[in-house]
Structures are given as C-alpha cells and as structure tokens.
Write a structure and sequence with these properties.
Elements: E1 6-10, E2 20-25, H1 33-39, H2 42-53, E3 62-66, E4 75-80, H3 89-101, E5 109-112, H4 124-138, E6 159-163, H5 167-192, H6 200-207, E7 216-220, H7 222-228, H8 231-237, E8 245-252, E9 261-271, H9 291-305, E10 311-321, E11 333-335, E12 341-343, H10 351-366, E13 370-375, H11 379-385, E14 390-394, H12 397-410, E15 414-416, H13 421-425, E16 434-435, H14 444-453, E17 461-465, H15 488-498
Parallel strand pairs: 1-6, 2-4, 2-5, 5-6, 9-10, 9-13, 12-16, 13-17, 14-15
Antiparallel strand pairs: 3-4, 7-8, 8-10, 11-12, 14-17
The structure holds ligand BES, manganese (II) ion (MN) and zinc ion.
C-alpha cells in the first residue's frame, strides 16, 4: 500500500532513535517501566512541561516537546491513554491512530507500546492493534496531486517502530490486522477514485488484484448479464456509454462443500439520477455511490489475505446511471432476473434495481448461509441516522444481533430499522408487480429495503444502508479520508466471531 508507513516491532527503543518518540501515560501522569526506560532522564522535563502546558494526561490529550535534554529523539509526544485495565481493542486501535496523527508528515518514529498499570507493557496483540490504527490513520488519497508540500515525503518512506516486549506475538497478531487494514485501504481507494477513471469495466478490472491473495474472480460481461435476464440492472446502465458488469469473488477457506456466506454490494460508479436527474450541488459526491461494492472487495481481500477459515462469496453490481437518448424513462417497465416486473417511477432510485438482480442471482447460484448487502441506497437514511450509524434492515434476528455486536466491537455501528407488510404495500404498482419508489419521501429508506426484500426469499438477509457512513465520512482518529472504507472491519469481525472454524 503506497501510503502506509512501514511498521516494525522491536523489543527495545532503537539506540539511535531519531525522529519522534511517542509514549503513553495515564491520567495521573504515570508511565510504565518501558516508557520510563525510553524517557530516561527526560522524565523530569516531561513533568515540568506538563505543568506549564496544563497537561494532565486526560485520555485523548497530548503533550508535545521539542528535543528534550538527554533524549536521542528530535521530538517527544506524550499521549494520555486512560487506564490500562479499561482499554478495549477498539480503544487501542484509536490510540494508534491518535499517535500516528501526532507524527510529522515525514520522518521516522518510535511508539512505545506500554501502559501504566499494565503488567510490563502491552501484549503483542495490543501492540498490533496500535499498529493497525496507525496504518488506518496514515492513509491519504493524494495520487492526483502533482505538487507536494516540503514537509510531505511519501508516507511509504517512513518507518514507525513499535516497541513491545512481545515482538513475536505482535508480528503474528499484526499479520491479521494488517490484512484487514489493507482491505479497508483498498475500499477507500476505490471510493475516492474519480468517476472518469473508475467506471464499471475499470472497477471490475481492479478486482482481479484479489487473485494474488487466492480469490477466484469471475467477471460477467454484457452478454452474460443479458443471458441471465438481469433486466433491472441492465436498465440502469443503458443510458451510459460505459458497459455494466457483475463481478463474483470467491474465497474458499472453509470446509469443502459448505454453503458460503454471501456479501453483495451496490456499485453505481456514478449516479447522476438518470432522466430523474439530480441537482448540480454536491453531485460530485455520487462518485462514491459504489461504496457498498468497494466494501465487499476490501472484505474479500481481507478474508483471503488473513486466510479466514470460511467459505465466502462477494458479488457486486457495477453500472453507471446516466441521462441519454437511450436512458431508461420513468414509466418504463423492466423484467428482473427473478421474473418479477418493475415499473420505474424515478430513475434515481437505481440502486435497488441493481441489487434486486444481484441478490436474486446470488441466492439462486450459491444458496448461501446468509446474504449481507451494503449500499449507499438512500438519502433518507442520512436524514434518519446522520453519519454515525448505518441503517440495518433484516429478516433475521440472529444475524441482526450479530451485526450489532460486531458494530459495537469495531466502532462501525449499525441501527436496526423496521420492515413490515404495511411498508411493503407502498411499493405495489398499478401496472407491474412493483414500482421502484414508495410514492412519498416518508420512510424512504424503509420502502427501499422492502424492495430488496422481494428478491431474497427465505434466505437470512441483512441490508446495510451506508449512504451516511461510506462516503463524505466523519473524520476521526483512524480516518482522515473522504471515503472511510466503512464495513470492512465490521463484516470481517462478523465472520471471525461467528462463522470461522
Ligand atoms: N445514491 C443515492 C442515495 C444517496 C444520497 C447516497 C446521498 C449518498 C448520499 C440513491 O441512488 C438515490 O438517489 N436515492 C434517492 C431515492 C429516491 C429517488 C426515492 C434518494 O435518496 O433521494
Ligand atoms: Mn440515485
Ligand atoms: Zn444511487
């Protein structure tokens, strides 16, 4: 990954620790033995600086000192971390991100993985959590910038050394966490790419990179999609000069013949709205309307790279929604692969058309244990939940519970929304089996979900509406990117905690 710093683990603070030294303290300004050792005589300087700067070691606060006497580092950063005993995995990931955020854009750094009150420093796994947070934080999408500020060396040129007593344990744990982080960064890259570069065919081409990790990748072209009868998906793409594609990615790390877990993504590479065209303001954001598909790609990459003991299939529908002489019209009736007919009311409600066909195809072809789909499906979910939680809709309580738990563990939170026959009725059509909008703005995220449910039958299924979380993302300790790569960590966790082994 071009943007990630090199991460190294070491049992001792490197002798010639040039660059920045990061240590953690608790809210009584106490250091553990490893940090105290790294600081040496500089502890007195820290205590003095803390007084003048009113730094109390409160969790999340930082004290930065230039060249303290007796230290080989150029800069020293002290980060308040809270109590060792209280720290959950997600807190350590965030802490690693916060530490990375305190490093200058260029130059090496040493982070001492130690917490006061802990038994002789952090465990190897905790050091690896820090490292994952640092990786996620360091990501920047700058490949289209031709000028760099003088202090901005490419991030790949710097090394962040994490000091831990358990180097072997840290390296082992990091192999997994790195695979997951790389999946997140891959998803972010795809979502951040401009739509003139990343159109359906090019998106499909990029998924071929997953073969290196051991995934089987199959690209369905126009002829194949027509043959399958995906009239709903193809209708969305017919106004574009770019051809539509469906990509199937398979990872078989589980028992032979066991039904796979299925992950499905909306991949609208650009959503103009089509003939029901969107307003100009903010339309550029619709390059991110493939965040669901990007997450599925990143997840499959992560599962394969960490050799997850599970069978999984990722299926993404890739189209571009454009207005044109050949574009789909409001009033058109299309036939989906399921055989059900759909009256198009609004060509901007295109995601459900794409997903309807891809969900049906996945169910028929793979008979999966469950299907989870991700989609930047509705503006209405942003009205309901803002940018913090993704909307969860499901026909299965167990799957919903597991997703909610995984959300809590990773910080990629989901909130369950209702489905019911009363909402389902709202998409009945006068002329066809159903229509593609609910007819009113109210409950817009729910009527969209009801539409999807008509394509899943009895298969346990969950739909994550990530319009608020997958793009134009909130900035935090581990994400400074427009595209968060939301969902990769959540679903990797779901797989790891409930379906592996
Ligand atoms: N891709 C949009 C939803 C969206 C909006 C994602 C804002 C991210 C940010 C989707 O295709 C769409 O246009 N939905 C319409 C549905 C409506 C026409 C029923 C919407 O939400 O307005
Ligand atoms: Mn749309
Ligand atoms: Zn869309």
């Amino acid at each position: 990954m071009a943007n990630a710093p090199k991460i190294a683990f070491s049992p001792v603070t490197p002798g010639k620790a040039a660059g920045t030294l990061v240590v953690f303290c608790d809210d009584r300004l106490q250091f553990g033995p490893p940090a105290a050792r790294a600081l040496g005589d500089a502890v007195a300087v820290v205590t003095r600086a803390a007084k003048t700067e009113h730094f109390t070691g409160k969790s999340g606060s930082a004290l930065e000192i230039l060249v303290p006497d007796g230290l080989k580092a150029d800069r020293l950063v002290v980060l308040g971390a809270g109590k060792a005993a209280d720290l959950k995995q997600q807190d350590l990931v965030k802490l690693g991100g916060a530490a990375m955020g305190k490093l200058p854009k260029a130059g090496d750094a040493v982070i001492v993985a130690d917490l006061p009150g802990g038994e002789g420093g952090m465990t190897g796994a905790q050091a690896a959590d820090l490292a994952q947070g640092a990786m996620l934080r360091a990501y920047a999408f700058d490949r289209y910038k031709t000028r760099r500020k003088p202090d901005e060396a490419p991030a790949g040129n710097r090394t962040v050394t994490i000091v831990t007593a358990d180097v072997a344990g840290a390296r082992k744990a990091f192999a997994e966490r790195e695979a997951i982080a790389e999946g997140v960064l891959m998803a972010r890259d795809l979502v951040n790419e401009p739509p003139n570069i990343l159109y359906p065919e090019e998106f499909a081409r990029r998924t071929l990179a997953l073969k290196k990790a051991g995934c089987a990748v199959q690209i369905l072209n126009m002829a194949a999609l027509k043959k399958l009868g995906m009239g709903a998906l193809l209708g969305v793409g017919q106004g574009s000069t770019r051809e539509s594609r469906v990509v199937v990615m398979r990872w078989n790390g589980g028992k032979k013949g066991e039904a796979p877990l299925a992950f499905i993504g909306k991949g609208v590479c650009f959503d103009t709205g089509g003939i029901s065209i969107k307003p100009a303001a903010g339309m550029e954001d619709m390059k991110g309307d493939m965040a669901g598909a990007a997450c599925v790609v990143g997840l499959m990459q992560a599962l394969a790279a960490r050799k997850a003991k599970v069978n999984a299939v990722g299926v993404i529908g890739l189209v571009e929604n454009m207005p044109d002489g050949n574009a789909q019209r409001p009033g058109d009736i299309v036939k989906s692969m399921s055989g059900q007919t759909i009256e198009i009311i609004n060509t901007d409600a295109e995601g459900r058309l794409v997903l309807g066909d891809v969900l049906w195809y996945t169910k028929e072809k793979f008979k999966p244990k469950f299907m989870v789909n991700l989609a930047t499906l509705t503006g209405a979910i942003i009205v309901a939940l803002g940018h913090e939680y993704a909307g969860l809709f499901s026909n299965n309580d167990e799957l919903s519970e597991r997703l909610a738990k995984s959300g809590e563990a990773t910080g990629e939170a989901v909130w369950r929304m209702p489905l019911s026959p009363a909402y389902d009725k709202m998409i009945d059509s006068r002329f066809a089996d159903m229509k593609n909008t609910g007819g009113s703005r109210y409950g817009g995220a729910i009527t969209a979900a009801q539409f999807l449910q008509r394509f899943v039958d009895k298969t346990p299924w969950a739909h994550l509406d990530i319009a608020g979380t997958g793009m134009d993302s909130r900035q935090n300790e581990i994400n400074k990117s427009w595209a968060s790569g939301w969902g990769v960590r959540l679903l990797d966790r779901l797989v790891a905690d409930y379906y592996e082994g």
